[in-house]
Structures are given as structure tokens and as C-alpha cells.
Amino acid sequence: MDASKVDFMRLNIVVKMGFMLTWVNAVLSASSTEQLSTIFEQCCQEPDSCLEWRPLFSGNSSATIQAICSLASITCDSEQNIIELKAPGMGLTCNLPDAPIQELQKLQSLDLSNNRISGPIPEFLPESLVEIRMNNNELIGAVPHSLATHPNLETLRLDYNQIESLPIEWTSMVYDASNSPFPLQAVHLGHNTLQGSFPQGLAYFPLLRVLELQHNTLSGPIEPKDSSGAFRQLNLLDVSDNSLSGTLPSWTDSVKTFIAGTGNTFTTASDSNASSSGLSGGAIAGIVIGVLVGVGCIATAIVLLLIRKRKSSTTTTTKEPSNAYERYI
């Protein structure tokens, strides 16, 4: 084949690939624009909400991806994909499943905290997410299974909502996560309506450092009992104001800040040993009191004996008359 024809064909392929990449980027940009526009339509109905977004989407305004990426609450990558959506306290009021968050496939950071977002958390959120902050909202239901084993998630803040249950991957030892790639480092689930057992499945998430479960209705013991490798990186564990019970595992001693708080009825290993020896707490207290009383009686007898001996000695040496007692009347 003529070399000039080969060069022409190569040039044609390069040009077509360039047009294709341009088309793909245009589609992605249009998709991001449509998704954020849908979020605005669904969640920004209140007149004082989403003030930063309002000029772009109100009335006949037609937002461009360039304008969206220039917003303080939005961060885009070099290909104009939205990678950060941070809208804390912007007055969003909507049902979360109606907001197409899951369509933002390049999203890495999502902050919708301090709003009035309701409904359950969608089962499938972008796998690109590294942090999710949706605390102080009105979310209900369960933590979805997809978040339990999310491949990239490091921080999960869902505190101050109405979440009721945890995924089985966290509440049971259904798999060995000791060699897992799960990068989860912080789980904030305090001030919800969680029921069920302590999430022992998180014990072998190798990077977990913070676990907050305070002000819920969790019950049963803190597990696992086996201390080998359990929560080996944990710096903060807060389980205050629950209904947990039982003997504290030995691994809790290595947690830098362990907050048992009120509402729980824990015993330590030493308490368990005393109980297993056949002596109850009341019996031990009775023995201690009895010993103290006995020591007091002996001390009193010794003092009285010394006083009597002193009187006897005084009478013999001074030879007091029989009416000496009258001097002290």
C-alpha cells in the first residue's frame, strides 16, 4: 500500500479518536450539569436555600459545566467531572433517593451535612467516594451493604440521624477482613436509633481508628472476645448511652480513649474472676465490713486494758485515800 495512503488513514483515525474523546467529554459534562440541576430542582425548593446555586439554575438560566466547576461548593477534575460536592448547611430539603448522587461516578467527597435530607441512603453510591458526610439530617433505615464493604471509603459520618440498623457485614463475622483492602478509618454513627448488637465485624478492618456509637439502643456484649488483632488501630471508641452489657474484652484496654458512659452495665475481667470464685459482690463487702469491725473491737479492748493498768499503777504508787474519787466530782 502506498505510504501516503497509510499516513492518511492514520491521520483519519487520530482525527476520529479526537472527535470521539471530545464527544465523550461533552456527554460527561452535560451529564454532570443535568445531575446537579436535578439535585437543585429536588432539594432547593425553599427560597433561602442553595443561594450559591440559584443564579445558575433559576428561571431561564442555562448552567454550563464551566460555571458549575467555578462554584465554591464544587470541585472538578481536569476533565470537568465533579469530584467534590460540599453543600453543608445550604438548606437542602429532599428525599435522598430522588437526588441523583449515584450518577456522579467520579465523586470522591460528598458533604451534605446540616441539612434536612430525609429517606434511606441509596444502596449504590459511587465507588469513587472517599468520604461521606451526611450527619445532622433526617435519614432513616439502614446503612447499606454497599457502604459496609466500600472499596475506597475512608470516612463515614452519619451521626445525628434516625438510622435504625447496621449491615450484617459489620454485626457478624461473616468474612475475614484482617487481610482486606477496605480502607475505612472513621465511622460516626452516634445519636441515631440503632438497634441490635455491637458491630464486631469491624474488629478486623485494619485501618479503623474512630468508632462512635453513642446515644443508640445497642444491646448485648461488646465482641469479639478474642483479643488477637481486634481493633488494633482503634484510638476512640464511644459506646455511651446504650444498653450494652457483659465483660469488657481485653482489647478495650489498648484503646486510647474508651468511653463506656452511662446506660451500659459492664463488668471487668477481675469482677468475673471474683464471681467465678463463688463470692458475690455482697459477700465480699460483708467480709470486708466484718474484718473492719473485728479490728475495731480488738483495738478498743487493748485501749481499755491499757487504761485499767494505768489506773492500777497510779493507785499503787501514790497511795491515794479512799475518798480520792470525790476530787473529780
Structural notes for this entry:
This protein has helices at residues 3-43, 54-57, 65-69, 145-148, 168-171, 269-276, 281-318, and strands at residues 74-76, 82-86, 93-95, 109-111, 116-120, 131-133, 138-142, 155-157, 162-165, 186-188, 195-196, 210-212, 217-220, 236-238, 243-247, 257-259, 265-267. With 329 residues, the chain is α/β, with parallel strands linked by helices. Strand 1 (74-76) and strand 2 (82-86) form a beta hairpin.
Short description:
32% of the residues lie in helices and 18% in strands. The C terminus is likely disordered.
Top keywords for this entry?
single chain; 329 residues; alpha/beta; 9-stranded mixed β-sheet; 4-stranded parallel β-sheet; 32% helix; 18% strand; disordered C terminus
